[in-house]
Write a sequence for this structure.
């Protein structure tokens, strides 16, 4: 019988070649699978339609409102009354005789210098807007209609005119004229009323002037020092409501603190009861673990809505929602930490004649305390962020003020300020929890 020829490649070589081929196929298959999934996701979520519906002009205006403000200069055409207000709000109204320097009033003529050569003039006959490189736009009321005169016959797209309304939008600002009023909007960077509103005697003063008034200046209010008047004006700022904002920040931190540490206190004994090496009754252990799975399996926002229906809105409801969710998480983690302790240390305490509580106190707690404290502090840091969203639902904390500012669709500078405060709060809690971990766990 003729012997078969030896294989071209030995078995080991065949295995290496097969592995190489599989890896080569995977190197092509995995990217193709990822690309196919991304294409499917793009079609399923209509990314092309989303891009087509995007309004970048609105996004540009929104981002500009974060760091800028506008001042309304309004004249009532019936009464002739002139008002100048930041963001057009009564709380930001300039008192008569203390108008900004770019608004000049001489009899019935009001001149508004928007900068860059853009000048608006209100007079008894109507209003004029001088636009650089274009000319003067003149509006005069005539009977029931408005008469518009421009340097050119055809109107550019930044002028919108009808018989009852004329609006002009330029790089210098916006201007609108109707039969009832004429209004000019001047845009500028910054938050001018952040510290004091225009009716405050401290408004518009430089830092050096404020320092002089605080340290050695004559009292503007005879009943109290200037420092106390400044603090009161800042905290009671009608536009920015700093006092209410700081209290809302305290409510947010308090929600996180009560929810986190309340859950830790409840979960510690329950963790002992759910640990296999601490509780001999299997049915009780099984039942507690399923309870932990249930209450942590339902998201904290769902518990927030349920508890808000049961107990009504308020910061305490948010704290209870976090307490309920974290009790399940802590119970699971605490019981698992207890099951992984070193039994030799417990046996050493038992040999001294210690009872069950003493064994837990001196043999178990010292072993698990670093793990428990680390987890609790981490959850405190995480719950500080979650309390913002929960506060928006239950009506408490900085989350509520953030939601209200967004809903107005105009207080975007407030939204930016609240976001800054939330980020600073999270950073502070991160630093605090890290410091506490080093002090309590490492002893350094």
């Amino acid at each position: 019988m003729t012997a078969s020829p030896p294989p071209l490649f030995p078995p080991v070589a065949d295995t290496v070649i097969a592995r190489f081929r599989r890896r080569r196929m995977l190197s092509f298959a995995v990217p193709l699978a990822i690309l196919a999934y991304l294409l499917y996701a793009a079609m399923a979520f209509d990314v092309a339609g989303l891009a087509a519906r995007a309004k970048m002009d609105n996004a540009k205006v929104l981002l500009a409102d974060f760091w800028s403000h506008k001042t309304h200069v309004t004249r009532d055409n019936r009464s002739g009354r002139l008002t100048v207000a930041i963001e057009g709000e009564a709380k930001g109204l300039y008192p008569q005789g203390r108008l900004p320097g770019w608004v000049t009033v001489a009899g019935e003529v009001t001149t508004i210098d928007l900068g860059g050569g853009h000048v608006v003039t209100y007079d008894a006959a109507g209003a004029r807007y001088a636009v650089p490189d274009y000319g003067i736009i003149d509006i005069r009321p005539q009977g029931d209609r408005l008469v518009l005169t421009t340097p050119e016959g055809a109107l550019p797209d930044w002028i919108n005119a009808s018989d009852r309304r004329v609006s002009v939008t330029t790089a210098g600002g916006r201007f609108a004229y109707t039969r009832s009023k004429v209004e000019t909007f001047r845009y500028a960077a910054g938050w001018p009323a952040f510290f004091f509103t225009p009716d405050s005697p401290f408004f518009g003063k430089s830092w050096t002037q404020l320092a002089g008034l605080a340290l050695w200046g004559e009292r503007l209010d005879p009943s109290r020092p200037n420092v106390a008047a400044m603090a009161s004006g800042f905290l009671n700022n009608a536009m920015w409501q700093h006092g209410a904002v700081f209290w809302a920040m305290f409510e947010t931190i308090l929600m996180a603190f009560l929810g986190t540490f309340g859950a830790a206190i409840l979960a510690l004994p329950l963790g002992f009861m759910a640990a296999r090496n601490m509780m001999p009754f299997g049915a009780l252990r099984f039942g507690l673990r399923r309870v932990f799975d249930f209450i942590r399996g339902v998201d904290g926002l769902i518990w927030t809505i349920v508890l808000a229906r049961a107990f009504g809105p308020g910061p305490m409801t948010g704290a209870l929602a976090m307490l309920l969710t974290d009790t399940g998480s802590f119970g699971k983690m605490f019981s698992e930490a207890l099951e992984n302790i070193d039994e030799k240390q417990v046996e050493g305490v038992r040999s001294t004649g210690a009872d069950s509580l003493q064994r837990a106190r001196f043999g178990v707690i010292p072993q698990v305390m670093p793990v428990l404290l680390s987890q609790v502090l981490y959850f405190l840091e995480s719950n500080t962020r979650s309390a913002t969203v929960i506060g928006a639902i239950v009506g408490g904390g900085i989350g509520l003020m953030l939601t209200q500012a967004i809903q107005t669709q105009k207080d975007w500078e407030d939204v930016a300020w609240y976001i800054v405060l939330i980020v600073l709060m999270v950073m502070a809690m991160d630093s605090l929890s890290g410091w506490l971990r080093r002090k309590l766990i490492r002893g350094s």
